[in-house]
TrEMBL record:
Coiled coil: none annotated. It catalyses: tRNA(Phe) + L-phenylalanine + ATP = L-phenylalanyl-tRNA(Phe) + AMP + diphosphate + H(+). InterPro entries: aa-tRNA-synth_II/BPL/LPL (IPR045864), B3/B4_tRNA-bd (IPR005146), DNA-bd_dom_put_sf (IPR009061), Phe-tRNA-ligase_IIc_bsu (IPR045060), Phe-tRNA-synth_IIc_bsu_arc_euk (IPR004531), Phe-tRNA_synthase-like_B3/B4 (IPR020825), PheRS_beta_core (IPR041616), PhetRS_B1 (IPR040659). It is found in: Cytoplasm. One of its GO terms (cellular component) is phenylalanine-tRNA ligase complex. This is Phenylalanine--tRNA ligase beta subunit. Residues 301-376 form the B5 domain. SUPFAM superfamilies: Class II aaRS and biotin synthetases (SSF55681), PheT/TilS domain (SSF56037), Putative DNA-binding domain (SSF46955). The keyword ATP-binding applies. GO terms for biological process: phenylalanyl-tRNA aminoacylation. Belongs to the phenylalanyl-tRNA synthetase beta subunit family. Type 2 subfamily. One of its GO terms (molecular function) is phenylalanine-tRNA ligase activity. Its EC number is 6.1.1.20. The lineage of its organism: Eukaryota, Metazoa, Ecdysozoa, Arthropoda, Hexapoda.
Length: 583
């Protein structure tokens, strides 16, 4: 959940009212937000840096407000103020409109961009008037979007430029790094792309974005018709086209790997700051040409209509209100609504991309109505809750393992193919493992089929601990199963490993006997050990655990080859059994 910091006095001035901290906290609560903290810049920095904080920072009061992760329209002062004023009935919802495009500001994509960031959208804000506060808010909103919906610029990167310093039409291209050279934002001279990547490798903010394009054979750039580079997304803009307080016309471009996210981001930015344009809430569209010559107009700023049933809305929320009242509640949430018979006709604005289903509208009705005003009522179905039997048994066995002197470990559900095959002396083709189709790392290629490899890796990572090391884990493994709906099934297992100067087979055997005793299973009558061969265990020192004629696991001394594969130097013994037959 993102948090925005707003100066209290500027916020109250924009709202046209003053509040005590308690009154504003109550207003936020009614609007579905939370006033997280009342602080100052100095207090925030002291909290982060201690005594090294700058003593000259402002003591102006800041409100830190938690914003729902899907409400991108509330991530800046402008959007929050509009939302609160509409909610209070002090102004109607803004009406966004688009102005006809100008061919000179079109954006043309080349074929090469498909190799790196294949999508782009663009828009123009005409006759904008910035103050220091609105300029800072403009930059801060871009940063908030970059950190949230843009997923740290991997999905979308925003570029803003002074339109009066550049000449369209514009070109979105991708070139080899050595062919890119320009003066980056706030830099004293021109540098090539590799030089910029080296320069920003130690930059506090920008270094985190370098990996997005660093290994690519081409880097994306946007340039005007004269070849002047505007930006190298998603890293840095050009100093030539930087916006200032004196900027009057802003060209906004968003390059992306996800077109839908790019449209949402562009709609959000232009909607929030079109209020400062000469023609309020008006945005000029741009033609964006694909490599095949077709074009789309952006921003969309589309209004759409949703229909919901009055009775369903009341039933889902647990209230009983007339249709006119529900329409009024939705209109307070910037969703202009008309009541027609048993139906609510909702006009969803381009700022509310979070509304994708009728449930989202029900939620906004509940917020405007007030969650604390919704009457409590008994459940219509009589039920009794209880712990899942498998989980209950798991908790009981965990306690017993701990009493036996074993320490619980929680290992990764995903592992490498070698962990469940080669290192255990078997072929991956013979292992019923569910494979990850596009693994991001070699460490996480399959879902584990055994708990043993995770415990052995844990022991290997704790070699400095005094011996013996006795670890256990009770958790799920996943096995392929053609009869299961998903093609695989979860199996709850318990595993214990003893690592010491000697193999310690008697210790894991004792752990098994203790668990069986607690499960009221008598040795020999109901369970027994039967000699077995398994490449993961030492020959002649491996046995199957048999429960009423069915094999439920194995016990034995780990093979030296397996120990070597997991980088262990001390002998180990292990037991691993299914516990589902006991549920």
């Amino acid at each position: 959940m993102p948090t925005i910091s707003l100066k209290r006095d500027a916020l109250f001035a924009a709202l046209g009212s003053t509040y005590t901290d308690e009154e504003f906290q109550d207003l936020c609560f009614k609007f579905g937000l939370e006033l997280d903290e009342v602080t100052t810049e100095k207090q925030m920095l002291i909290k982060e840096q201690g005594d090294q904080a700058d003593a000259e920072l402002s003591d102006e009061i800041l409100y830190r407000i938690d914003i729902p992760a899907n409400r991108y329209d509330l991530l800046c002062l402008e959007g929050l103020v509009d939302g609160l004023l509409v909610f209070q009935g002090k102004k109607p919802p803004p009406q966004y409109k688009v102005k006809k495009y100008e061919d000179c500001n079109s954006l043309h994509l080349t074929m090469a961009t498909a190799q790196i960031r294949p999508y782009a959208v663009a828009a123009v804000l005409r006759g904008i008037t910035f103050t220091k506060e609105s300029y800072d808010s403009f930059i801060d909103l871009q940063d908030k979007l970059h950190q949230n919906i843009c997923r740290k610029r991997t999905l979308v990167a925003i570029g803003t430029h002074d339109l009066d310093t550049i000449h369209g039409p514009f070109i979105y291209d991708a070139l080899p790094p050595n062919e890119i050279k320009f003066k980056a934002l706030n830099q004293p001279k021109e540098l090539t792309a590799p030089e910029l990547m080296e320069l920003y490798s130690n930059h506090a903010q920008l270094k985190q974005y370098l990996g997005i394009i660093k290994e690519s054979p081409v880097y994306p750039i946007i340039k005007d018709k004269n070849g002047v580079i505007l930006s190298m997304p998603p890293i840095i803009n050009s100093d030539h086209s930087k916006i200032t307080l004196n900027t009057k016309n802003v060209f906004i471009e968003c390059t992306a790997t996800d077109l839908t996210k790019a449209i949402v981001v562009l709609d959000t930015v232009v909607s929030m700051f079109s209020k400062y344009c000469t023609s309020e809430y008006e945005v000029q569209q741009c033609k964006v040409f694909s490599p095949d010559g077709t074009y789309e107009l952006y921003p969309k700023l589309q209004y759409r209509e949703e229909l919901i049933n009055v009775d369903k809305a009341n039933n889902y929320i647990g209230i009983s209100e007339e249709g006119d009242k529900l329409a009024s509640l939705l209109s307070r949430m910037c969703l202009q609504t008309a009541h027609e018979g048993s139906v609510l006709r909702v006009r969803v604005p381009p700022t509310r991309h979070d509304v994708i289903h009728a449930c989202d509208l029900y939620e906004d009705i509940a917020i405007a109505y007030g969650y604390n005003r919704i009457a409590r009522r008994p459940a219509r179905a009589v039920t009794s809750g209880g712990q899942d039997p498998a989980n209950k048994l798991t908790e009981q066995l965990r306690n017993e393992c701990a009493r036996a002197g074993y320490t619980e470990a929680l290992t990764f559900t995903l592992c490498s193919r070698e962990d469940v095959s080669t290192k255990l002396g078997v072929k991956i083709e013979d292992v019923p493992a569910a494979h990850i189709s596009n693994p991001k790392t070699l460490e996480f290629q399959v879902v584990r089929t055994l708990l043993l490899p995770g415990l052995l890796k844990t022991i290997a990572a704790n070699k400095k601990m005094p011996l013996p090391l006795k670890l256990f884990e009770i958790s799920d493994v996943v096995l392929l199963d053609e009869n299961a709906e998903s093609g695989a099934r979860n199996v709850r297992r318990a595993c214990g490993v003893h690592c010491g100067r000697a193999a310690g087979f008697q210790h894991v055997h004792g752990l098994l006997d203790r668990l069986m005793a607690q499960l009221r299973v008598r040795h020999r009558d109901q369970y027994a050990l039967r000699p077995a061969q398994d490449p993961a265990y030492f020959p002649g020192r491996c046995a199957e655990v048999v429960l009423q004629g069915k094999v439920i696991g194995k016990i034995g001394v780990i093979h030296p080859n397996v120990l070597t594969a997991f980088e262990l130097t001390n002998p180990c013994s292990a037991v691993e059994i299914d516990i589902e037959p006991f549920v």
